[in-house]
Amino acid sequence: MVILGIESSCDDTSAAVVRDGVLLSNVLAGQEVHRQYGGVIPELASRAHQQHIIPVTHGALTVAGVRPGEVDAVAFTSGPGLMGSLLVGTSFAKGFSLATGAPLVAVNHLQGHVLSHFIDVPEKRLPHPSFPFLCLLVSGGHSQLIVVNSFLHFDVIGETIDDAAGEAFDKCAKVMGLPYPGGPIIDRLATQGNPQAFRFARPQAGGLDYSFSGLKTSFLYFLRDRMADNPAFIEEHRHDLCASLQHTIIEILMHNLVKAAAQTGIREIAVAGGVSANSGLRQRLLDEGKMRRWQVYLPELRFTTDNAAMIAITGYYLFLAGKRTAPDVTPTARIRH
Q1: How confident is the model at residue 124 (pLDDT cuts 50, 70, 90)?
Q2: How confident is the model at residue 230 (pLDDT cuts 50, 70, 90)?
Q3: pTM of the complete model
């Protein structure tokens, strides 16, 4: 069974081919244009998707050694994401389906991140969590705690009530004058700083929900007050600021994850999403896993960011379950669980 996956939810255009659950290709084109604006500009993103979608898909099929007519289904991201970007991927998937006869399979982008843990690759055997498992999904737009009961049945037991963890990284980085995307830069600079140098607010939303808005405000006011006395404060303390900020975000994430594991009794713990590439978070999960006897699953770095491999593998399991999508489907910028 051959599945073509299309991902275009934000600013990365990606296509991938999966055969019987094994990844044959995963081609991605990024968009450097957004760096100069300090964030993703939706109109520019959708235009770039239009330029990239055909060569990216052609590349994925070529690398996989698959002809368009051999594709059994085309899976595509139907949301959540930027509407203009989603429309490009959805429209292309419809055209491909019409031309080849391959049925459409709409995929929830967040479900794709979670099921990236089930991608198999030809060169080695990757570990897969057992059901049910608890997944911490952390990205630029979402922070959720999910009990994954099966490939198709998820229960969201906690989520952010305002900003996501990735958004906190990027916006605080922007305040410090770091280029976009700021999360990876903070991660790199944090390795040379003291995570205990400064303390910032750690908002608690109640239950298992998250909140990062208060942290951003705390960080902004802290810098404002320190720079009033010393205009060079950020430059002189950049590494310690990054280390302390990263430590705070990780503490907030882990606090609820530990609670969720205790409440559910689940010891199979996974992390997914763009922030799951953060080295501090990955190490903290491994450390907590040893202490609490968790079985921890960390995705390969190439599967942490937005990519079509996760869309293709999710489409594979949806297709196996008999799921098909009507050709009049429209994408949705926001999807409620």
Answers
A1: confident
A2: very high
A3: 0.94
SS (H, E, C) the chain: CEEEEEECCCCCEEEEEEECCEEEEEEEECCHHHHHHCCCCHHHHHHHHHHHHHHHHHHHHHHHCCCHHHCCEEEEEEECCCHHHHHHHHHHHHHHHHHHCCCEEEEEHHHHHHHHHHCEECCECCCCCCCCEEEEEECCCCEEEEEECCCCCEEEEEEECCCCHHHHHHHHHHHCCCCCCHHHHHHHHHCCCCCCCCCCCCCCCCCCCECCHHHHHHHHHHHHHHHHHCCCHHHHHHHHHHHHHHHHHHHHHHHHHHHHHHHHCCCEEEEECHHHHCHHHHHHHHHHHHHHCCEEECCCHHHCCCCHHHHHHHHHHHHHCCCCECCCCCCCCCCCC
Domains of the chain: 2-124+303-320 (3.30.420.40), 133-299 (3.30.420.40)
The stretch 162-189 carries a mean pLDDT of 93
